[in-house]
Design goal:
Layout lengths: L1 H17 L10 E2 L9 E3 L4 E3 L1 H10 L2 E6 L4 H16 L5 E8 L3 H9 L5 H7 L12 H9 L4 E5 L2 H10 L8 H4 L8 H14 L7 H23 L4 E6 L9 H5 L8 E8 L20 E5 L1 E2 L4 H11 L1
Helix pairs in contact: 1-12, 2-3, 3-6, 4-5, 7-10, 9-10
Length: about 325
């Protein structure tokens, strides 16, 4: 058990840095002059569309999944632009946030009910980790508060995550894996695809803990989908990691069959690579992965694999 917990701790360190949860501050971006930066790719149509058309489609969706890289400031500016477009069009979607654990929803509701509540009050009520760089989300939350949109906590709590890692999906409670669509289990090819992504995300470290992380990732996606469905009567704009927004592996899988005809759009905001100049060179543009891919400059950050290796050595 000790080695498993140690491995999970190291995994958390790496994932935290990759998603902006461990003080991996970003001061600037690069590759703004990349030929794909700022362009939007329609995955099904296999063509570029104007950003204004992407805005229109996302604003019209009942459920919009905005898949970000958490420490990229350009992604936050796009999200703000998209939420503003939706509310200016007369929509009143809930702002669903991976950055807040579901256990703090009541506290967030209470904070939001206080006259003059601001983004800082929401962060305090939701016990948001300082490593999320909440200031990057402040304008988004401020817009939600000004327009009286419900702020929704969507993430599986850290305590429940640890329990699932140790005990498996049954730790969600009697009947919950079935209700959430986690059982029966995934086909082997889909599980293998998720496992490959997690190994890549852990710098090629193919340890037994990866299998536990597959269950954790699936549980988080299913809980986020369930939360969205519970709060999407007037629509939802979900601020989640790009991997969670994947239609082939993430939240959309657990929305499928439960939306009662509500339109879902998955947007993947993808950082450009200097070696890849065509949209088809990116995994995120594969059929069935996202509906739309918005290419952006890269956030400049410390080498995440170097952080991971140091953490393993120190641990």
């Amino acid at each position: 058990m000790h080695s498993t917990l140690t491995a999970l701790r190291l995994s958390a360190i790496l994932l935290a840095c990759v998603t902006g949860l461990a003080g991996c501050a970003v001061s600037r971006v690069s590759l703004a002059d990349h030929p794909l930066a700022g362009k939007v790719w329609d995955v099904a149509a296999e063509r570029f569309i104007e950003p204004a058309e992407a805005e229109r489609r996302i604003a019209a969706a009942d459920i919009a999944l905005l898949g970000e890289t958490h420490d990229n400031p350009v992604h936050h500016s796009i999200q703000l632009r998209l939420l503003r477009r939706a509310v200016d069009a007369g929509r009143r979607p809930a702002l669903v946030m991976e950055q807040i654990d579901t256990e703090w929803q009541e506290a967030v509701d209470s904070a939001q009910a206080v006259r003059g509540a601001d983004a800082t009050a929401i962060a305090a009520a939701g016990k948001v980790s300082p490593g999320w760089h909440w200031r990057e989300y402040a304008e988004l939350v401020t817009l939600a508060l000004e327009r009286r949109l419900k702020v929704v906590a969507a993430n599986l709590s850290r305590a429940r995550t640890r329990t699932i890692a140790a005990e498996g999906l049954a730790a969600l409670g009697s009947g919950e894996p079935e209700r959430l669509g986690l059982e029966p289990g995934w086909p082997a090819p889909r599980r293998a695809a998720m496992r490959r992504l997690l190994v890549e995300g852990h710098c090629g470290d193919d340890s037994p803990v990866i299998d536990k992380l597959v269950d954790v990732q699936r549980a988080r996606d299913a809980v986020m989908a369930d939360t969205i469905l519970k709060t999407a009567a007037d629509g939802a704009v979900a601020i989640i990691g790009r991997g969670h927004a994947r239609a082939d592996l993430g939240v959309p899988l657990y929305l499928s069959g439960r939306t009662n005809g509500r339109a879902v759009v998955s947007l993947g905001m993808v950082e450009v690579s200097p070696q890849r100049l065509s949209p088809r060179e990116y995994d995120e543009t594969a059929a069935g992965t996202h509906d739309l891919v918005w290419f952006t400059p890269r956030a400049e950050r410390e080498d995440q694999c170097a952080i991971f290796k140091r953490a393993r050595k120190d641990g």
